[in-house]
């Protein structure tokens, strides 16, 4: 369903929804913005998203994961904020690097114009030049289709990173205030996400933090149309009335985002509280309202809550102290585990704790790390940079290989698997990557010839690249539905040394996927192992709820002893959930093997029950 055309004009008017945050960071603006986009999409609108990050970095590519969480990679090679991953997963769209606006990008854009003389000798200032550039960027990017269809979207959801009052976000606040006037009444809706804490001493919901946040927002020239209040429980009616009185927002436009078991409930909370009706009223779109069913999301959220049979995956990494560092990997594991009807349990194993030096310096940490690794049903070694913990990752790969534990290595995880194989099977004790030992006599992993050794930002092999399968009868090709090639996203500057491939293959390591030149190794497998796969790309970035990544589905399937069932399905992203898990109606009988199957697509399957509810 399309937004109606403006009277007397030949094109539709773009609608904008701005999501801001107050009081404290970490309230879940990204999930809220994603859920709002999903809700509007279920109402029949086409939706795109923009994330504004006020930091001076041009992009997220050079930022520490400990400071900013994971770097999400887009098809076009953009290294962006992790919230764009939420947008892609919730809306099932493909965004571009321009959908992530940073202060660095804006200032570089303006300064480049100044150097070219585009400002005709004027004094270049924050207002109007920076603020105009922000507005023009938003309008331009909002018109780029991201859902595979022709023409622009109907609604653009914009998330402003940070918290109201942050000094670095002031130019964006000013620009967005001007922008609300620029697009006009009925085309701009501001949703402010704030905190309503509950004091344990008295158990009372306190409105003062939100009152101050809204007052600060209004003082900067923006007035919220809707309040989305984070709290541990639903807001009492008297609390809503108080917020309405002091924040000048209708009580019907005050929504509670209380704590839920999983984030798939958030769109349901918004729907149940009629958030879409409030947004439509502000955007002057009452004539096209459709009641969003969210049937797939409702069932999926219920399934996730009811799963009880565990599958335990050990993530052996460098940044295990912050789970957001591996956010897309966690989501991909969750998508796959729900698809197999298993309750995901992730054991975080600090890679360095597996090393011999830790046994000497901290025996308890060493024993704890090895206990977690040995009790895991599957092992995943993710990507990373630097030599800290590399030896521990190599030991984890060796443990999985020798004990026939399902293993998936991603990016660096694949590279260390190659190094371990060369050391243990070929007997090359000094086999290494030139990233960690530039003088190694047996370089299994080398710096890519086209890479830059002087500039770090944006110089890796980035974005969607094609991988061609070299073997027709291998696990990875079966998991991907017996395709001849796949397109996955990359982020690396080192690669397997092609000069060593023949020796490794002769020893039993199969390179089942390569690039178009056959010189760049993309997928490795051990044919005689239950599940031992390494990939140079990052399959987690394209995993979606209801459409899990093939390789993650394979890992979970192997970890719970169901790999053959996954391989026999021959369909990437096929969901299988035991009917007993979700209490299917007794008069419905599942298909053979206790499952009902259907390839899932949350966009085209209007009605499909994720409990395997399509019965024979």
TrEMBL record:
Residue span(s) of domain Glutamine amidotransferase: 323-556
Protein name: CTP synthase
Pathway, per record: Pyrimidine metabolism; CTP biosynthesis via de novo pathway; CTP from UDP: step 2/2
Function: Catalyzes the ATP-dependent amination of UTP to CTP with either L-glutamine or ammonia as the source of nitrogen.
Gene3D superfamilies the record matches: 3.40.50.880, P-loop containing nucleotide triphosphate hydrolases
CDD domains reported in the protein's UniProt record: CTPS_N (cd03113), GATase1_CTP_Synthase (cd01746)
HAMAP family, per database record: PyrG (MF_01227)
Family: Belongs to the CTP synthase family.
Keywords, alphabetical: ATP-binding, Glutamine amidotransferase, Ligase, Nucleotide-binding, Pyrimidine biosynthesis
The keyword Nucleotide-binding is annotated on this UniProt entry: yes
E.C. numbers: 6.3.4.2
Domain CTP synthase N-terminal: 15-285
Pfam families registered for this protein in UniProt: CTP_synth_N, GATase
């Amino acid at each position: 369903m399309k937004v109606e055309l403006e009277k007397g004009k030949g094109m539709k008017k773009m609608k904008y929804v701005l999501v801001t945050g107050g009081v404290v960071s970490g309230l879940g603006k990204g999930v809220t913005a994603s859920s709002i986009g999903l809700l509007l999409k279920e109402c029949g609108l086409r939706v795109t998203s923009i994330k504004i990050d006020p930091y001076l970095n041009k992009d997220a590519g050079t930022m520490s994961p400990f400071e900013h969480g994971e770097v999400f990679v887009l098809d076009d090679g953009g290294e962006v904020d992790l919230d764009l991953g939420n947008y892609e997963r919730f809306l099932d769209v493909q965004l571009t690097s321009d959908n992530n606006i940073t202060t660095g990008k804006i200032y570089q854009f303006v300064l480049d114009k100044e150097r070219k003389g585009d400002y005709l000798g004027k004094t270049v200032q924050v207002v109007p030049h920076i603020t105009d550039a922000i507005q023009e960027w938003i309008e331009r990017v909002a018109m780029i289709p991201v859902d595979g269809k022709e023409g622009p979207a109907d609604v653009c959801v914009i998330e402003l990173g940070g918290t109201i009052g942050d000094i670095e976000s002031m130019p964006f606040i000013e620009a967005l205030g001007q922008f609300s006037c620029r697009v006009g009444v009925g085309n701009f809706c501001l949703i402010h996400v704030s905190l309503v804490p509950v004091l344990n001493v008295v158990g009372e919901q306190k409105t003062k933090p939100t009152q101050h946040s809204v007052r600060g927002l209004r003082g900067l020239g923006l007035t919220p149309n809707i309040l989305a209040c984070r709290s541990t429980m639903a807001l009492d009616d008297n609390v809503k009335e108080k917020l309405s009185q002091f924040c000048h927002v209708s009580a019907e436009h005050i929504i509670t985002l209380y704590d839920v078991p999983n984030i798939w409930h958030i769109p349901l909370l918004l729907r149940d509280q009629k958030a879409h009706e409030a947004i439509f009223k502000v955007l002057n779109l009452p004539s096209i309202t459709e009641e969003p069913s969210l049937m797939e999301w409702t069932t999926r959220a219920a399934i996730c809550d009811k799963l009880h049979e565990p599958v335990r995956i050990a993530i052996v990494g460098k940044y295990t102290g912050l789970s957001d560092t591996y956010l897309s990997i966690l989501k991909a594991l969750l998508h796959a585990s729900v698809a197999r009807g298993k309750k995901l349990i992730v054991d975080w194993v600090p890679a360095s704790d597996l090393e011999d030096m830790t046994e000497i310096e901290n025996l308890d940490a060493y024993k704890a790390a090895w206990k977690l690794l040995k009790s895991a049903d599957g092992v995943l070694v993710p990507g990373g940079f630097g030599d800290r913990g590399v030896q521990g990752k190599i030991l984890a790969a060796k443990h999985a290989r020798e004990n026939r534990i399902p293993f998936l290595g991603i990016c660096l995880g694949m590279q260390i698997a190659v190094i371990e194989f060369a050391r243990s099977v070929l007997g090359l004790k000094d086999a290494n990557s030139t990233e960690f030992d530039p003088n190694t006599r047996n370089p299994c992993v080398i710096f890519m010839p086209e890479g830059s050794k002087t500039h770090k930002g944006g110089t890796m092999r980035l974005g969607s690249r094609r991988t061609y399968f070299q073997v027709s009868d291998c696990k990875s090709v079966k998991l991907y539905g017996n395709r001849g090639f796949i397109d996955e996203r990359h982020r690396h500057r080192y690669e397997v040394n092609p000069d060593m491939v023949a020796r490794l293959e002769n020893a039993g390591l199969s390179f089942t996927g390569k690039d178009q030149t056959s010189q760049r190794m993309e997928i490795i497998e051990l044919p005689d192992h239950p599940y031992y796969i390494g990939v140079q790309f990052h399959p987690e970035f394209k995993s979606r709820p209801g459409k899990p990544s093939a390789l993650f589905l394979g890992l979970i399937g192997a970890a719970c002893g169901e790999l053959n069932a996954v391989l026999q399905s021959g369909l990437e992203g096929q969901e299988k959930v035991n009917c007993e898990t979700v209490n299917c109606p007794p008069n419905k009988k599942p298909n053979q093997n206790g499952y009902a199957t259907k390839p899932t697509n949350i966009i085209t399957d209007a009605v499909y029950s994720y409990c395997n509810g399509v019965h024979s």
